[in-house]
Design goal:
The protein has 18 helices and 2 strands. By secondary structure, it is an all-alpha fold. It has one domain: Growth Hormone, Chain: A, CATH 1.20.1250. The protein has a two-stranded antiparallel ribbon with strand order 1-2. Helix 6 packs across helix 15. The protein is globular, with a radius of gyration of 21 Å. About 55% of the residues are buried.
Amino acid sequence: MDASIAVPRRAAVNDYLFGRGPAWFAYLMTIGLMMFDYIDRQIIASMFPFLKSDWMLTDAQLGALVSVVSVTVAVFGIPVAWIADRFSRVKSIIAMATTWSIATIACMFSQGYGHLLLARAFVGLGEAGYGSVGAAMVATHFPQRMRGAILGGFFASASVGSVLGTVLGGVIALRFGWKAGFGVVGIPGLILALLYVFVRDYKTIEAASPANAPATGLVVAASQREMIRSILRSRTVRWICVGGAAQLISLSALWSWLPSYLNRTQHLPPDKAAVQAALVVLAGAVGSVVLGAIADRAGLRRPAGKFIAVASLSVLTAILLVLAFGAARWGLALTPGTQLGLIVLGGFVATCTVGPAAAVVIGVIHPGVRSTGAAVLSLFQNLFGLAAGPFIAGALSDAVGLETALTLTPMGCIVAALSFLAARHTYVDEYVG
């Protein structure tokens, strides 16, 4: 490859793109919308007991209400990210957030399971590409040395949103009915979407031929087709896509089904079960920031250290969650407090791949297609992780019980660990900055 896009020289140095102030403003606005993204996704999990009672749904049908969002995110994520890369990240984010907020409000008017499933699909359509475009926005605004922690914080806001969605769903449903919750969370997201117009976008990077590329002060770039092919050729991207998705099978199953598990096995009321489940999601939010920073530090002296650290944490996730849900089968009697403690610890380390996975992929992707490259990762994470986890756990629950289902789903963490260990061998050769 002998051609590339025009990128200002400043983007190549370890500095803020527009300055510290614009970077942090863009960051706060972007993570604010990420919170509402996941509030709207997760609010339905704590409504499962009410939906099961009102509409006599199976666990597989309930899981599908979560999974359908991730399916539409996966299907439309790459086209939306490609449009954002070619035109405007800010305008794309405004359009996406407006769409998912209106679709969430529409959920409160559902007259049956089919209507609710369709409305949830449109929530996913609005959210398609947001994680990847938002990640590209914040990663480009900040210096490379901060990206692991910054992206960990960005994706941690998803956990915070999930906490709020879980708590709000249970509390509002118990007091005002489950439909009311969708209106409560949909309207503020719509307002924040309109305020995003004040975020400073970075200049769209156009493909250029070697003959037309500026002679000085710019990095010479590849054609658009070559840039897209570079994503697909990257062995690092392929391994991280597999590992990132595998880890999220366990995480999404845990977040979606823990309120129901606590309601069924410990007979907690839905609102109290939602609060305990929210503690686990909150632990994941903290974990994604802390463990993202730890992974950054582990890779300072040698890049392989980052991958070894993440792989070790993935294995630890599997051990903690399998023990928490499977101890009784091996004759180990856990008190409810001890079990919850293990689940909280498992939730804390389960998000260990979130920030590092995005940082690694962005680091080996050409600057001109970073949103698209992040969308490839998002496709795998959503379709084979976030969408698969709740449905697989629901189907297993119908077959062998919910406790056994939550004991089996952490096996995906072992696949994640092996994938990150494999990616460390190709990362150094493919790294671009």
